[in-house]
């Protein structure tokens, strides 16, 4: 049964400007170490940070909460499976909320262009 769905759209230039202004302070507060390493390997890191930011926002929306409601964004990480499929890995309060809500499946879809990034998260529960 579907628990919730969330979608988010990010302007990659906005993420790029924030990173230019705040640098590691922003990046380390928002992204997990594996995400930072992954994004740093690409020619246009802001695009990859942007799509990951959209995924984090989409997850919170699907869960029915917003920023500042107990889940830190760096507790929500996008990683790629061996076949390249993106998936969310949750830690801390994010993982705890899933268990409390008895959410059994997390579906993630990402897409991006040079200018925009979008993510959709679908949560299923028992």
Nutshell version of this structure?
The protein has helices at 12-22, 24-30, 33-40, 45-63, 92-100, and strands spanning 2-11, 76-80, 86-90, 103-112, 116-125.
Question: What is the number of strand segments?
Answer: 5
Please report which band the strand proportion falls in: under 5%, 5-15%, 15-25%, 25-35%, 35-45% or over 45%: 25-35%
Largest sheet: 3 strands, antiparallel
What do we call the CATH topology? Ribosomal Protein L22, Chain A
Helix/strand class: alpha+beta
Just give the CATH class: Alpha Beta
Question: Compute the gyration radius: what is it?
Answer: 14 Å
Structure description:
This protein has 126 residues and is of the alpha+beta class. The chain has a single domain, classed as 4'-phosphopantetheinyl transferase domain (Ribosomal Protein L22, Chain A, Alpha-Beta Complex), CATH 3.90.470.20. Helices cover 43% and strands 32% of the residues. It has five helices and five strands; from the N terminus they run E-H-H-H-H-E-E-H-E-E. The strands form two sheets. It has a three-stranded antiparallel sheet. A hairpin with a 3-residue loop joins strand 4 and strand 5. Helix 3 runs antiparallel to helix 4. The protein is globular, with a radius of gyration of 14 Å. The model has no long low-confidence stretch (mean pLDDT 96).
